[in-house]
Amino acid sequence: MTKQDIKNIQTLLSRPKHIVIIPHKNPDGDAMGASLALYHYLKKLDHEVRVIAPNDYPDFLKWMPADELVLKYEFSRKESDELLKNADLIFTLDFNALNRIGDMETPVKTSEAIKIMIDHHQQPDDYALYTYSEVGMSSTCEMIYHFIDKLGDLEVIDQDIATCLYTGIMTDTGSFRFASTTSTTHKVIAHLIDQGAQNAQIHNNIYDTNSFERLQLLGRALSNLTVLPKYKTAYISLTQEDLNTFNFKKGDTEGFVNYGLSVEGVVLAVIFIENQQEGIVKISLRSKGDFSVNELSRAHFEGGGHTNAAGGKSDLSLEATIEKFISILPSYKHVLSHE
């Protein structure tokens, strides 16, 4: 994003506007943290602002300030379509291709609103008039912090904004342990704590409240863990029956794939989750070092993301999807063996 872009956006925001903020489908902590932080910031500038999420998201994200005001497109299409049609500005956060917002893609495409993308994923599409893309950034929430800084408004950051931004940075950095966590990230975090973010409470809200059924589901996932030492790979599979048995709720499998990656010697970890309602297998991939799960997912599973964290899907059965995955590993053996 150029200095002229920033000046143009400052001009756009100098007078009250109707603004819609959109995270990606199945939003995570970074997507919702960024959306709600930007919501609070723009409200302080006297804009009319709504956050519209494509669909619902886990309960452990619903404690953030103003979450109760978020519209879910899957439940409120008529109201959401009207807001999109009448918007002056649309911010798209934590995604860079409109197919990542599901059924919202068409109304967003047809809206005459000026679109502003803020995202840290690789290979962004060219749909926004203004694009702020930083692949090396820890999170979209860290980018929102720098965006506010570029606009000259750091002093506007209050406890609500700080809380939302801290949540997204914490979740997308794996509690600050991923390589994308830089010294700048820690400086940002320090400022957010100074502005009122309660770091211990935020961590507790996200990570330290589990249902009995979720822990049972984790036990089933770990019992299904398979390690392929030849390819330094581990994978977990969960059937629809597994999910039903333990009363699965959205977000219950969050972080499960990381257990595979924690196995000694493993460089690539994947979890395959059967979703009979959508007729697909959802796939999450994690890696260590320079092995790119973004490239693997884009090439074979209609997905993408970051070098070390990506998602994808398969229209094959769970068994066939796993067979396909195992069949492609030999072509990556040379790269995996050097990690």
CATH topology of the largest domain: inorganic pyrophosphatase (n-terminal core)
CATH superfamily of the largest domain: inorganic pyrophosphatase (n-terminal core)
Shape, principal axes of CA atoms: globular
Element order, helices and strands?
Answer: HEHEEHEHEEHHHHHEEHHEEHEEHH
At a glance:
The chain is of the alpha/beta class.
What does this structure look like?
Helices cover 40% and strands 18% of the residues. It has 339 residues and is of the alpha/beta class. It has two domains: 3-207, inorganic pyrophosphatase (n-terminal core); 212-337, Diaminopimelate Epimerase, Chain A, domain 1. The protein has a six-stranded parallel β-sheet, with helices on both faces. The protein has a six-stranded mixed β-sheet with strand order 7-8-9-10-12-11. Strand 11 (304-305) and strand 12 form a beta hairpin.
